[in-house]
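Entries read sequence, tokenised fold; example below:

***
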Amino acid sequence: MANIALSEAEKTFILHGVEEDFRVDGRSCRDYRPMELETELVNNASGSARLRLANTDILVGIKTEIDKPSIQFPERGKIEFFVDCSANAAPEFEGRGGEELALELADTLANAYESSLAFDLKDLCILPGQQCWKLYVDILILECGGNLFDAVSLASKAALYNTKIPRVTSALMDAGEADLIISDDPHDCTRIKIDHIPILVTVCKIGDCCVVDPSAEEEECSTASIVVAVSRRDDSTFISHTHTVGHGSLHKDTVFNCLKLGVPVAEQLNEALMKTLILEESVLGMQKNRCVGFLK
């Protein structure tokens, strides 16, 4: 995370505000900062999204290619996460300063998506043991203003929502090789099921209290945080992964309180995200279908 120099008086002011459930920017411990979301921004990507959470700015692009399934999971497709921290996002990211954070973000997302209940890779399989789709999720951190894990997960889910995979018809030849026919019609495509894809919620411990969506200043006042990956399936909510951030330790009661706070917040975030994606898709569809000049 970006390091911000704070005096002891500033840290004390933030700590006292959190204890009174009234943070520096006027939020309560359960509130998020304003968000802005745009999708279908990158023309040469199968799906893309840009999310701005206060001063945190994330751009995600999805690329697809046909690959061979792994020997261990012949009926599953593949997904890989790559995170790049722009040198303009924070002074600490200059040179190779952001590599450790980028690897931590990518590993946390990969672990959260690993459960088949959270993201079923069987939907990406074309021919078991022969061919499958491989998704590359490229994440670029344009600006760092705190709470990167949550912003990255929301932007990734939004990009996967509008990802379009060409429809493939396949057949096995006499030699056992697969003959694939990929449709070149941009409208003849399939969509990825994102209903169960998890949302990451960072619960930050400041003093004896837990807050969500920590700002960069609040992260500087915290010794430890828990990132909770929350998914939903069959009207039930479950945690697919947890990750601890920071150099401090957490008591078991604190961990329980963090999970108790993070799960309902993730449900609210997911509901708001899905409503926004559906609304934006309908608006973009109306704009694409609108006649411009003499072109029909």
Observations:
- Residues 8-285 form a domain with the Ribosomal Protein S5; domain 2 fold (CATH 3.30.230.70).
- The chain is about 30% helix and 30% strand.
